[in-house]
Every structure is written in C-alpha cells, then in structure tokens.
Design goal:
Blueprint (H helix, E strand, L loop, with lengths): L1 H24 L1 E8 L5 E11 L2 E8 L2 E4 L1 E6 L2 E8 L2 E10 L4 E8 L2 E9 L4
Antiparallel strand pairs: 1-2, 1-9, 2-3, 3-4, 3-5, 5-6, 6-7, 7-8, 8-9
Length: 122
C-alpha cells in the first residue's frame, strides 16, 4: 500500500514539474537575427502552450504572423511561420536555467541561429 501511494505521489509531482516547465515558455521572447551580410533583424515571439501544442505569434520588421504547426516536447520546441508565402521552419530548445530559447531557423535552405531572451514586462 505504501509503495502504491509513493508511486502515485511521485507521478503527480512529475506531472506538476512538467506543467510548470510548459508555463515557463509562455510569454514574450525577443532576439536578433544576424544575416551573413551583416544585417540584423529584431524578432519577437509570443508563445502560448496547451499541453504539447505551441501557438502564438512572431513579429519582425515586416509585420506579425501566426505560429503554425507548433509542438513542444520536454525542452524542445518546433513551429513554422509564413513569410512572403514561404514556410519558415523553427526548431529550438528552452533553457530554464538561463531563461532563454536557442532557436534554429530554416528559410528556404538558409540556416540561421538566434538566442531569445524573455522580454522585459513593461
């Protein structure tokens, strides 16, 4: 009986930790995308999680677009955004200790990397 109670309590604690993790990704994140020609583009993402689904918006100098096909599993996340009719693939990893997201972006075969930090609340 004690063993079942312990296992149940351990599972509940594990789920609580996982849900707390997902809550940490929610919110506004910002970074800068640097291109090989030296240009820099500010990026802002607003993430919303619901279990393993990731939604929200992405904002760049050209405007705001919805995040599509978003998934989150453990500390890994992936999603797409559309830019000028092209699907831009995003894959990344959330680092709770540094409160940052390491993000790889694939735009028509060109690969970019950026690090997002949680935006400061005003």
């Amino acid at each position: 009986m004690k063993k079942k109670l312990f296992i149940t309590a351990a599972l509940l604690c594990s789920f609580a930790v996982v849900f707390a993790f997902f809550a940490d990704v929610n919110g506004e994140w910002s970074g800068v995308l640097s291109t090989p020609d030296g240009n820099e583009y500010p990026l802002t993402y607003t993430f919303k999680t619901d279990n393993d689904k990731l939604t929200g918006t992405a904002q760049n100098p050209q405007g705001t677009v919805d995040i599509t096909d978003g998934k989150i599993k453990g500390d890994s996340l992936s999603f797409n955004v559309e830019a000028n009719g092209t699907k831009v693939l995003h894959n990344g990893k959330y680092f709770s200790t540094g409160d940052s997201v390491s993000l790889n972006i694939d735009f028509n075969g060109m690969k970019f990397h950026t690090t997002l930090k949680r935006a400061v609340q005003k």
